[in-house]
């Protein structure tokens, strides 16, 4: 490149730079403002900073208020849920307590007697029925009276075939559906969080009667197991009723532990 052109370019750039500097405010890092412009800028910046700070403070207050409202709403929802659970549990206790085990019924079946129709847990009613069977001969000697109203059932035929209509029990589907609905209300959809969480309705250490019925709770788990066992057993016995021989009757009695 030609030297003179280089010099000319340098000179031109220098002029451009010095002109620019004069029209621009001093950079903020300069401690001593050198002109009225930069002083004004400092003031503007300071004002904006304090405006921003006020806005941030206001926003923080709003966030705090919102989270307080949310906390209160959560508490109200929890109290409402607790009341719903408590009511459902009361209905379970009042209408679906088994007269044989005194627990909430699991898989309800009723006695087939025109004057009775009383309902018990499938497992309980089978235990009651098979406990009356004499192991040595596979027949019933004592009378089969409903544990509630004493209506007397006909003794089953000791040897197969047995007419299907002589099966002494039938499923109580209405009770079964109602039970499941109520149990689901008490249990909830989610497992409750860690125990250390302080309950709003009770003092620490005080438990509500339905708490063991929450999803994953001891009573709920135990009920599910009873429901499963009862359903399986009663269906097996119902299926085999017509053809069950002495051996099967005894095995059933043994399986039920009566
Ligand atoms: Zn029962
Ligand atoms: Zn009865
Ligand atoms: Zn006998």
UniProtKB/TrEMBL annotation:
Record carries keyword Cell division: no
InterPro entries: Znf-RING_euk, Znf_RING, Znf_RING/FYVE/PHD, Znf_RING_CS
Domain of life: Eukaryota
Region Disordered: start-end pairs: 1-40
Assigned keywords, A-Z: Metal-binding, Zinc, Zinc-finger
Biased composition (Polar residues): 16-37
CDD domains: RING-HC
SUPFAM superfamilies the record matches: RING/U-box (SSF57850)
GO molecular function terms noted in the UniProt entry: zinc ion binding
Keyword DNA-binding: no
Boundaries of every RING-type domain copy: 98-150
Protein name listed in UniProt: RING-type domain-containing protein
């Amino acid at each position: 490149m030609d030297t003179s052109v280089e010099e000319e370019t340098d000179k031109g750039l220098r002029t451009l730079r010095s002109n620019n500097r004069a029209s621009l405010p001093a950079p903020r890092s300069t401690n001593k403002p050198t002109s009225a412009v930069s002083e004004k800028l400092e003031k503007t910046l300071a004002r904006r900073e304090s405006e921003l700070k006020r806005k941030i403070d206001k926003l923080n207050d709003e966030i705090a208020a919102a989270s307080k409202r949310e906390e209160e709403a959560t508490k109200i929802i929890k109290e409402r849920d607790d009341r719903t659970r408590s009511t459902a549990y009361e209905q379970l206790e009042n209408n679906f307590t088994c007269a044989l085990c005194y627990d909430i019924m699991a898989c309800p079946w009723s006695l087939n007697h025109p004057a009775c129709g009383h309902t018990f847990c499938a497992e309980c009613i089978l235990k009651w029925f098979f406990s009356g069977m004499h192991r040595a001969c596979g027949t019933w000697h004592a009378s089969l009276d409903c544990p509630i109203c004493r209506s007397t059932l006909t003794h089953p035929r000791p040897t197969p075939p047995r007419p299907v209509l002589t099966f002494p029990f039938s499923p109580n589907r209405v009770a079964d559906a109602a039970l499941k609905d109520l149990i689901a209300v008490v249990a909830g959809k989610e497992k409750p969080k860690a125990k250390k969480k302080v309950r709003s309705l009770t003092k620490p250490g005080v438990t509500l009667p339905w708490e063991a019925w929450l999803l994953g709770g001891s009573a709920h788990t135990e009920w599910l197991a009873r429901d499963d066992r009862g359903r399986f057993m009663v269906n097996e016995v119902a299926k085999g009723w017509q053809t069950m021989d002495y051996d099967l009757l005894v095995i059933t009695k043994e399986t039920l532990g009566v």
